[in-house]
Amino acid sequence: MPINKDLAIQTVNLSKRFGKITALDSLNLEIESHSIYGFLGPNGSGKTTAIRLMLGLSRPSNGNAYIHGFSCARRQAESRQIIGYLPDVPNFFGYMSGLDYLVLCGKLFGLDNKAALNRAWPLLELTGVKEAAHRKANGYSRGMKQRLGLAAAMMGNPKVLFLDEPVSAMDPLGRADVLDIIKGIKEKATVFLSTHILSDVERVSDKVGIIDHGRLITSASIQELKQQFSQNCITVNTLEEPTPLVALIKMQGWCSDVIAKQNERGVPELVIYLKDPIAARDNLPKLIIQQNFTIINYVTTLPSLEDIFIKLAGAK
After folding, report:
1. Which stretch of DSSP H or E encloses residue 36?
2. What is the tens place of the pLDDT at every residue in 222-273?
3. Closest CA to 128 of 113, 158, 150
4. Which of 228, 98, 77 is nearest to 151 (CA)?
5. DSSP per residue over 197-245, as a string?
6. Rounded CA gap, 153 and 168, in Å?
7. Which of 303, 258, 259, 253 is nearest to 275 (CA)?
8. What are the pLDDT digits (tens) for 180-235?
């Protein structure tokens, strides 16, 4: 596969083995500049291994990763100069203020004190840490630390920004705020976003990759995925716990699959994939009522990203 310098991230048969265990198996990605790429997978699927290889923190067993054409394995100096990284649990020197920490980061990128300050203040304001700029970092909440970490990751004006669970410790308002920031970042940089919060990925990502057992299952836009899995679904919520209905509904000829899950409000629900939508609409309500379940919500819809993820990754 030829190396395309116009791509922000390109991986070619990227693989990593630990003894007899293959953590990552021939990962091939092509990620456009100024886009947000959502990277999804169950725990242990290979996400962290892939990120470490792309950051040049680990050497591949086979293949390679490229950041704007620079090899992450052989030309680490060039690739690291144009990337930023926010780990899922960022650590700081607790005795330093948020501002002092950003100035230190700026100096590591070769800025003098004045230039580092001039770059730090707008980032503190952008990420919502300006009012706490002079407070010691060990007094920050975890959500504030993630905001400070995001600011630190951008101190080098990166062309590619790797974000690992950037909003996992935040309340809904904080998440919405930071997601809006991330959406704005793609005007200046490409964002590689690894997270378990699928609704956030669906909200901000241009394209999504789903990985499981070290192998990339699919890489496509959310719209393409929904079109690919566009068989009609019926979402059902019942007054009673609906899980006992799963096996019964799966036995019906008009059903192709059933996923039992909780929605965003924590309410149990069934997502029913249909082979024959007409037969399902005629028979499903009667079937549920005959089993003495009370329907409180019944809607025909397309599958969500979460439904597609569960179906592809085989998560229980």
Report:
1. strand 36-40
2. 888 877 776 678 999 998 999 899 999 999 999 989 989 888 778 889 999 8
3. 150
4. 98
5. -HHHHHHH-SEEEEEETTEEEEEE-HHHHHHHT-S-EEEEEESS--GGG
6. 17
7. 253
8. 999 999 889 999 999 877 888 888 999 999 999 999 999 999 888 877 776 678 99
Strand partners, 95: none
Radius of gyration in angstroms for the set of CA atoms belonging to the chain, rounded to a whole number: 23
Cα–Cα distances in angstroms (integers) from residue 213 to residues 45, 221, 230, in the given order? 5, 21, 25
Closest to 312 (Cα-Cα) out of 236, 253, 228, 244: 228
The SS3 of residue 16 is strand
- Asked if 269 contacts 261 with a C-beta cutoff of 8 angstroms, the reply is yes
Could you tell me which residues come within 8 angstroms of residue 242 by beta carbon, excluding any fewer than 6 positions away? 236, 260, 268, 269, 270, 293
Q: What's the pTM value of the predicted model, to 2 decimals?
A: 0.78
Instruction: Retrieve residue 14's tokens.
Output: 């990227």
- Distance (Å) of CA 19 to CA 23, 49, 106, 124: 10, 15, 39, 44
Maximum CA extent, the chain: 74
Report helix, strand or coil for 173: helix
Task: Report the C-alpha gap between 275 and 312 in whole angstroms.
Answer: 18
What distance in Å separates the CA atoms of residue 90 and residue 141, rounded to the nearest whole number? Answer: 12
CA angle 146, 181, 56 (to 5 degrees): 60
Query: Of the candidates 134, 181, 176, which has an alpha carbon nearest to the alpha carbon of residue 154?
Result: 181
What is the C-alpha to C-alpha distance for residues 24 and 38, in angstroms, rounded to an integer?
A: 18
Q: Which of 186, 94, 193, 210 is CA-nearest to residue 144?
A: 94
